[in-house]
Amino acid sequence: MSHSRTSKLFVLSAVTLAAHTFVQAQDTVLGETTVRATAEQELKQALGVSVITQEELTERAPANDISELVRTMPGVNLTGNSASGQYGNNRQIDIRGMGPENTLILIDGKPVQSRNGAKMGRSGERDTRGDSNWVPVEAIERIEVIRGPAAARYGSGASGGVVNIITKKPTDKLQGSVTVYGKFQEDSNEGDTKRSSFNLSGPLAENLSFRLFGNMAKTDADSPDLNRTSNTTSVIAPAGREGVNNKDINALLRWDLTPRQVLELELGASRQTNIYAGETPVSIDANAPIRQSLIGEETNRTNRNTIGLAHRGTWDWGTSRLLFQYENTRRWQNPVGLAGGPEGSITSGNDKVSSKLGNYFLTGEVNTPFTLGGTSHMLTSGFEYRNEKLNDAAAMAQGTGTGGNNIGGLVGSAGERSGKADAQNFALFVEDNFEPFQNLILTPGVRFDHHSQSGNNWSPSLNATYQVNDSWQVKGGIARAFKAPNLYQTNKNYLYYTRGNGCPVNSPNMGAGCYIVGNPDLEAEISVNKELGLAYSNHNGLDASLSYFQNDYKNKIYSEMNDGTPIVVGTSQVFQWMNASQAIVKGVEGNLTLPLDGKDGSRLKLVNNFTYMLKNHNKENNQPLSVIPKYTVNSTLDWQVNDVFSTQLNATFYGRQEPRTVQTGGAVSTGNQLQEIGAYALFGIGAQYKLSKDYSLNFGITNLADKRLLRESNSSGAGAASYNELGRAYYASITGRF
């Protein structure tokens, strides 16, 4: 670290310490101070923040993954991490078009990073379902979806937004519940889901309580014939959704040290396995017999284990929070074919390759109220530390060539190379929340991160709310966010080898294929996120908002090889991951809740939200960052019929989806590669009935009109038609409580 960087770090540390010391010195006037909300609490009132409540979780319980629920929030879609079409049915949460890798998943404020243990291919895709399926819905109290400038406070990986899953807490008396759920597809070629889960909590002794939840769920794989059409000439049709088996157990022990201090210890273990449905990252037929033999088998397994410790305190000078978590992820999978094997194909055999990922996370903050110049402030100051360690031999499984084409001098010989990589990130942050003028609330902040691979990053932010009158508010914000490169991209031993069409068209195959290698000199990706809008609310339950958002994105890391000049070794060409492209994402979001009957719509209300994307593309080549709808509208008509029966009619309308017009390697898209998905709509109906005080029933129908989409290729050969939209299905669950 340079002297100037060290000085900046010292200055920020000194400012944080001085601010904390100053506020402690104000204890004598705290009794007269109007205590404001913390900066985090204020930011969660921003326009770009939505909350899925306990009631909504009950009404629209997902079949398995909570991404099914989160996708109904404004600004959220399910996509891949690029427009390549690879792993099309493993879509993940994408907030404001920034891609799943820029969506940070938290559980009770602690980052979830298990997906980082799956190797990243050259298109930016991973063979993973992401990190939204580690907590069963029955164990969740609420889900916070944080978009735009408000998300910048959470550090690397939050450029798009944050999904914070808040779990249920221990109770002061013994209580529990058991839920059994089933979802059955009308088409027998589509996989059904069955789930059973339990929750138990209560006191163990004076000042000591616990919470325990467990879950077993299985979603069957789609039939290999599901996507077969008259145009399908391959031995195996494009893959449908792979199945998944979940097993989760989690225990939390809470100790109330004093009435104002709490200590919590949490242990969790999860196991997810797939049920293979024929997925490959590229469209190939040569290995079809092997693919056929693996259909219905487990080809990858992920174990995630966590241990966490949390302390929260209320003091004379304010409040504090200290969190620690160790997350251990072990992933096993069938080997993937190398170039010519054929490239990207999954291979048979009992010898699975493995990766190990360890994440250490520690964060602490204090919230201290004080008065300055007659104005009440709430100062938040704190730190964060992350340490990520990866060991994945498959990251360097490709050969380095022979003879005059041996690139071992660039990455090291096989005996010298290692699949081990690690990175550390240390951050300090300061935020304030105050009202400089009547009805104007400002929340400025600054975060400093030092990343061992990509150096220093400053993330200033400013969010504001102006209360025009009792009903109208103007809200806005601007923040700089960043994402550090992942451990595959910076590992100098990472190696990806491709032949034939994998080489870029402006640098054609010279005979020995093309390599992509890791780049330890990568810089962090940077985005400047802006948001401005209006919010309206009255005392009769009418709520509305309209906001404009824009993310200016630079230093995006990619390896499409279009713009780079390769190093030539014999007749081999060597490329690197690189910082090059700039992108822009902008659009409009809004919501409208109309009370139709009862106080504040308590009997009947119509809840709506929408997102309209104005731009979502790479400035260098005008290609989309991911394939997302031009617009999305979610509507729910919620009717509380009486005290024991309620029902909802919901609809989602999706706009046109356009694929990339330039392929990986620079080839111009042609034929089916340019295929769009036209606008379509999905309708559903659900109902809840309280059978008794202790038993309740939830049932309904999804995709009432049976609108279906079929995947037409395992990669970009189908354009935007790279995923399945499931047909009509029937679901029911019963919950017993005591």
From TrEMBL:
UniProt motif TonB C-terminal box: location: 721-738
Domain TonB-dependent receptor-like beta-barrel residues, every copy: 297-704
Localization in the cell: Cell outer membrane
UniProt entry tagged with the keyword Iron: yes
Domain TonB-dependent receptor plug: residue ranges: 47-162
Alphabetical UniProt keywords: Cell outer membrane, Ion transport, Iron, Iron transport, Membrane, Receptor, Signal, TonB box, Transmembrane, Transmembrane beta strand, Transport
Pfam families: Plug, TonB_dep_Rec_b-barrel
Main subcellular location: membrane
Signal peptide positions (record): 1-25
Ion transport recorded as keyword: yes
Matches recorded under Gene3D superfamilies: TonB-dependent receptor, beta-barrel domain (2.40.170.20), TonB-dependent receptor, plug domain (2.170.130.10)
Membrane topology, as annotated: Multi-pass membrane protein
Top-level taxonomic group: Bacteria
Similarity comment text for this entry: Belongs to the TonB-dependent receptor family.
Protein name stated in the entry: FepA family TonB-dependent siderophore receptor
The species this protein was found in: Comamonas avium
